[in-house]
Amino acid sequence: MSMLTFTSMTNPLFATEQPIQLSYLYSLSSGSLPLPADCCGQAEILFIMKGSGTCTIHNTKHQVTRGDIILINKGSLHSFSPQSNSPATLASALGLKHLQLTGLPEGHFLPSGAAPIINTGHAYPLIAQLLQQIKKIIAESSSNFHQEACSHLVQAILLLALEQYNHTVSTNKDSAYALGQHIKAYLDNHYLEELSLSQIAAELHISPYYMSHIFKECTGGSPMQYITQLRITEAQNLLLSTKQSVTDIAMQCGYNNSNYFQSVFSRLVGMPPGKYRNTWKQT
């Protein structure tokens, strides 16, 4: 005999004792795929089971495909249309009443600004099975008990979708951190060379904008600011450990213009290179 045990929930996702209520289940097949007239007044889960299309939410278009779940907050104007060359599109829209998740406004699935598209990945078969069970229960009976059972199954679908969302967010954060460290390692090895943002991005096979965005998230500054800091730190070391001229040190640290080097050095260190050398060599 095998037995599974469960611990008490310490941080429940659902913030109210009133259970989520499934208010409608709308099957969308190829064609115009219209949504219910009152759908914008309720939170809605849109599940793409076959084909692909475009979901528009508040005039923002999102390309979706098989396995995607779109979490649409209460009051969000939205529509869905299939891809023109994908006639076999099949989707389901589930309207929810009494949605209240911990830390979020009533009727909201995700924090403001979060992408509403979740790819269910390995959870797709289970979510599809739960949806089929809801349809089967509805087809067999419409009693209060059956309605309550359907509402609990919808809650299970939502929990699986949000679990996949959290996993995706965590994975993306790990990937972004790893990329940020990769960029940093490249700059650590090449900062004395003549570099530009576009050259660095080309070497790393990413766009300059994305590279700057990821690097700033990981370090708090831009790649070029980091290069400048590395160069000035190297100049400080050379000023104190060698007798090279300021001009030679500037050239060695990647600056062809000595006056510009001294200007940057003074701005970051608080004094010109010559004064820095005299001050700290005497201590």
What does it look like?
By secondary structure, this protein is an alpha+beta fold. The protein has 2 domains: 151 residues, Sandwich (Jelly Rolls); 93 residues, Orthogonal Bundle (Arc Repressor Mutant, subunit A). The protein has 8 helices and 8 strands, in the order E-E-E-E-E-E-E-E-H-H-H-H-H-H-H-H. Strands 1-7-2-5-8 form a 5-stranded antiparallel beta sheet, covered by helices on one side. A 3-stranded antiparallel beta sheet has the order 4-3-6, with no helix packed on it. Strand 3 and strand 4 form a beta hairpin. Helix 2 crosses helix 4 and helix 5 packs across helix 8. The radius of gyration is 29 Å and the shape is elongated.
Give the SSE map.
Elements (H helix, E strand, L loop, with lengths): L20 E9 L13 E8 L1 E6 L2 E6 L2 E5 L5 E5 L7 E8 L19 E3 L4 H17 L3 H47 L6 H8 L3 H12 L3 H19 L4 H7 L5 H12 L3 H9 L2
Antiparallel strand pairs: 1-7, 2-5, 2-7, 3-4, 3-6, 5-8
Helix pairs in contact: 1-2, 2-4, 2-5, 5-8
